[in-house]
Amino acid sequence: MAYSQGKDSVMLRFKGRWDNDKLPAAGTQTFSSLWGWTSPEGREYAIMGSLDSIYFIEITNPQKPVLRDAEAGKYLRCIHREFKTYKNYCYAVADEGPSSLQIFDLSYLPDSVHKVYDSDTLSTRAHNLFIDNDKLYLADNKVIKIRENRPPDVQFYVLTVASLADPEKPVLISHLEPPKINDEYIHAETHDLFVRNDTAYCSNGYSGLFVYNYANPLNPRLIASIQPPYPQHGYNHSSWLSANGNTLVFADENHGKELKVYDAASLKTNRPDRLEYLSTFGSNSNNGSIAHNPFIKGNLVYVSYYHDGVVVFDISDRAAPKLVARYDTYPENDTIKEESLRYYGFEGVWNVYPFFASGNIIASDMTHGLFVLSLDTVHIPDPPALNDIKVINNPFRHNLQLKIASAAQSEWQFELYDAAGHILGSQKMVLPQGVQQAVLFENLYLSNGMYILQVKNNQNIKTFKLIHL
Known about the structure:
Strand content: over 45%
Helix content: under 10%
Distance between the termini: 41 Å
Strand order of the largest sheet: 1-30-29-28
Largest sheet: 4 strands, antiparallel
Oligomer: single chain
Number of strands: 37
Structural class: mainly beta
Shape: globular
Radius of gyration: 24 Å
Number of helices: 0
């Protein structure tokens, strides 16, 4: 029997996971966004939000994430939590209930974190935040004052900027007032933003994307915009700029909308308004997928996708981005028989962070918690002829049924792992040449959730993601 040499392939590979099934949930959501931080000693941490708390998880050993501390938010039923780090501090905001801006000193890790600020004076609720040049930017910022026997006093600010000259005591600098046309503001919100060198790229929902120069934060200037109609216009959610400042990628948070690539080099000239559209790209956009947050690292764009997981694209050719790899943290939607419902709602990955020097990549799945991944080049041998393995019942309940076509009689080994990589069961059996059906793990008690099955003989290895119901 002849075999080809196979091929090299770039893959997102599972390294570790952290979850806690006992945490409160709202439907399928327990967790929200995340960010990453590296200590001066090189230890790596994931910072992830849940409905009621913030978790500080060490991933220096990515196979064994360790929870180092957890801190409660001010409001304990919060769907949206967001984080950014600055020096040895983590800044946290929330966008439900009577919340607050919280600041945590991370310099005591891995022992613990210390909360050094918790106040609703500057921000009661904010949808997102960014930090650049010693300044804190708060998007869709609300300051809410509760008054006895009267409705709450809600002050809404499109974008608030505060000084971090003292990182533990932010001081208000200004609130953005957008320009007006015919006595109407050109946009009414800043849903999310990216800031570099005092230039703020503000994603403003259905109004589009607006770029402000904040060199003088008391008098920010609008210098460019991408307003509808632009290709596949939707709810402009978030953006990221390449390291050289030439490429801007942004996502519209709608079913079926692809990400957009724009040439941003004009922002370095005296004609910054000439942002040039280059292309769109996406994952399963024709099926209704939703891209949430893109991040650019080198020539790669890492995207957190609801339902589809972490998806990586190569934008070396900005006119024709290419899919590189994906890792699906929420395969439940693939088991829905009605294809039109597989991308219904908002489930799966909220955010991804690809900037650790080690190459570790972290992602927060709203249901399944923290995933640690790596982007690796692996050698995939071509499978022997006639060897074909199919899972008959996925999701499964009491036992697992496989259909195996063998090119010759051989011994097969079946190993079942939980999502954290712990082996739960192993079976071996000798199968003759031809098509056979194997029934596995009949006496193994399993809780509901996601599992990994590895099937192998001396010539073939295959891995399956499974759901137990």
